[in-house]
């Protein structure tokens, strides 16, 4: 399976998982020139900005390591673009998350990691 197909399957599993937790999916693959947020969802007054990593342990390192300072800064910039486009979101508390999909299709959700 190629990376694109694997990534799309992972994002589908992540969206289904978030919905099972009561999230409303607002955007998938929200892109701006500075970066992208894989899934933006709403749950209990929180605006969740989630990065999805479909990761095989044989890749050699843990997915949290992929959220380096540059990636976190890009996600924040995209979040601020979203607030400019939809000012009604200003009152919501942001949560930047990682959703790790394992090769066994297990979902590991790390909420508010930065």
List the helices and strands and how they pair.
Blueprint: H1 3-20, E1 24-32, E2 35-43, E3 46-54, H2 69-85, E4 93-101, E5 107-110
Parallel strand pairs: 3-4
Antiparallel strand pairs: 1-2, 2-3, 4-5
Family: Belongs to the UPF0102 family.
Organism: Leptospira yanagawae
Pfam families: UPF0102 (PF02021)
Summarize this, please?
31% of the residues lie in helices and 35% in strands.
Main features:
five-stranded mixed beta sheet; globular; 5 strands; 35% strand; alpha+beta; 114 residues; Trna Endonuclease, Chain: A, domain 1; single chain
Describe this structure in words.
It comes from Leptospira yanagawae. Pfam families: UPF0102 (PF02021). This is UPF0102 protein EHQ46_13475. With 114 residues, this protein is an alpha+beta fold. The chain has helices at 3-20, 69-85; strands spanning 24-32, 35-43, 46-54, 93-101, 107-110. It has a five-stranded mixed β-sheet with strand order 1-2-3-4-5. The longest helix has 18 residues, at 3-20. The chain is globular. It starts with a helix and ends with a strand.
The domain tally reads 1
Radius of gyration: 14 Å
| CATH structural architecture | 3-Layer(aba) Sandwich
Shape: globular
- What fraction of residues sit in β-strands? 35-45%
Report the average pLDDT across residues. 93
- Helix tally equals 2
Task: Give the fraction of residues assigned to helices.
Answer: 25-40%
For the sheet with most strands, the description reads:
5 strands, mixed
Q: For this structure, what is the CATH class?
A: Alpha Beta
Order of helices and strands: HEEEHEE
Helix vs. strand class: alpha+beta
Low-confidence stretches: none
Biggest sheet, strands in spatial order? Answer: 1-2-3-4-5
Distance between the termini: 31 Å
CATH topology: the name is Trna Endonuclease, Chain: A, domain 1
Strand tally is: 5
